[in-house]
Amino acid sequence: MRISDCGMGVALIVVVACARGPQPTSQPAVATSTAPAAAAPSRPRPYSVLETRDFARALERGTRTRTGRPGPSYWQQYATYRLEAAYDPATKRLTGRGTMRYTNRSPDTLGNVFLHLYANLFPPDAMRNEPVPVTGGVELRRIAIDGRPVGEAPNDTAAGYEVFSTILRVRPPARILPGATVQVDAEWQYTVPPDGAPRGGDDGEVAYIAYWYPQFAVYDDVARRWQTDRYMGTAEFYMGYGDYDVSITVPEGWLVAATGELTNAAEVLSAQTRARLDTARRSRDITHVVAEADRGAGKATARGRDGKLTWRFRATNVRDFAFGTSDKYLWDATVAVAGDATGDGRADTAAIHTFWRPQRRAWAWDQSARYAQHSIEFLSRYLWPYPYPHMTAVDGVVSCSGMEYPMMTCIGGRRDTLALYSVTVHEIAHMWFPMQVGSDEKRFSWQDEGLTRFNQAQGMQEFFPGYDRESLSRTNYLNFARSGGEVELMRHGDLYPIGSAAFGIASYDKMAINLRSLRALLGDDLFLRAYREYGRRWINKHPTPYDFWNTVEDVAGRDLDSFWTTWWFDTWTVDQAVG
Question: What is the pTM of this model?
Answer without folding.
Answer: 0.91
